[in-house]
Amino acid sequence: VVVENSVISHNDCGIIVWSSSGISISGCVIDHNGGGVIIVNSSDISVSGCDIYDNDFGIAIWSSSNISISRCRISDNLSIGIFIGGGTIVPTSGCDMSSNGCSVGIWPSSNISISGCDVSDNLWFGVYILWSSNISMSGCSVSDNWYEGIHICLSSDISISGCHVKGNGYDGVYAYRSSGISMSGCDISGNGYNGVCVADSRNITMSECRVRGNGYNGICAWGSSVSVSGCSISNNGRNGIYTEEVSPGMSISGCNIRGNRHNGIRIRGSRDAIISGCDVSNNGYDGIRIRNSRNIAISECNVGHNGYNGIRIWRSPNTSLSECNVS
């Protein structure tokens, strides 16, 4: 079945696909409906080159698989641009999703990919992920959303690569009680609160990212295990990296941490952390501040020209310093 180059508007629902397969929807204008496109218990459905706007919601997918969404403009929908509930293998690529309540909502689903999409100016979140796994985002711009750019809750195995996450009202990326989240090659900048915030999460890795000019901390970790490597973290409103009550195994390596208003790295109430091979300089307060922590190892770092102390250690037993240049 092929639906193409059609105008579908002012209905309770624009298109409903129920217990079907092998359907193509292309080049359509779908507007001012209760729901734009609803797909239920179906497979092998493609939606491409469509303009889906001013509906109560754009596309809703329930209990379906192999659903492809590409090159669509999905905008100004009241609640959500694309909702995926109980779906699997849903690639979304090259879409412009803006000015919805939330552009993409995923829960609970798996094997979902979002690539080359522009997700901007939404009323709540840009992308919201709940109770889901094996989700990948690559080459996307997630910007100027009123709340958080990407919100991850109770989910696992999330990959975010080569994305620009900027100008969102609160955190650029927020993760709560989640695990196995990797961020690589991303530019996370100009967000209202933290660039990245993780809470009660495990196995969070960041590599080769630029985290700059965020209103509060560049990276904030509460009660989480985090690894940060090869990142540039600069000119954030408070600390470059702030950690509190982090789990054993935290590491910060090969990072350039400069020009943050407060401390370059602040560690509080944490243990068993490694800081190695970092350049921590020109921050407003201390280069590295450690408080009420233990078993913190600092090695091969260049710590210089910070406003107060190069390295400040307070009530933190078994903190070691080796082969560092502190000036």
Largest sheet: 15 strands, parallel
| Approximate shape | elongated
Strand content: over 45%
Contiguous helical run count = 0
Instruction: State the secondary-structure class.
Output: mainly beta
Task: Give the helix/strand layout.
Elements: E1 2-4, E2 7-9, E3 13-18, E4 21-26, E5 29-31, E6 35-40, E7 43-48, E8 51-53, E9 57-62, E10 65-70, E11 73-75, E12 80-85, E13 88-93, E14 96-98, E15 102-106, E16 110-115, E17 118-120, E18 127-130, E19 133-138, E20 141-143, E21 150-153, E22 156-161, E23 164-166, E24 173-176, E25 179-184, E26 187-189, E27 196-199, E28 202-207, E29 210-212, E30 219-222, E31 226-229, E32 232-234, E33 241-244, E34 250-253, E35 256-258, E36 265-268, E37 271-276, E38 279-281, E39 288-291, E40 294-299, E41 302-304, E42 311-314, E43 320-322, E44 325-326
Parallel strand pairs: 1-4, 2-5, 3-6, 4-7, 5-8, 6-9, 7-10, 8-11, 9-12, 10-13, 11-14, 12-15, 13-16, 14-17, 15-18, 16-19, 17-20, 18-21, 19-22, 20-23, 21-24, 22-25, 23-26, 24-27, 25-28, 26-29, 27-30, 28-31, 29-32, 30-33, 31-34, 32-35, 33-36, 34-37, 35-38, 36-39, 37-40, 38-41, 39-42, 40-43, ...
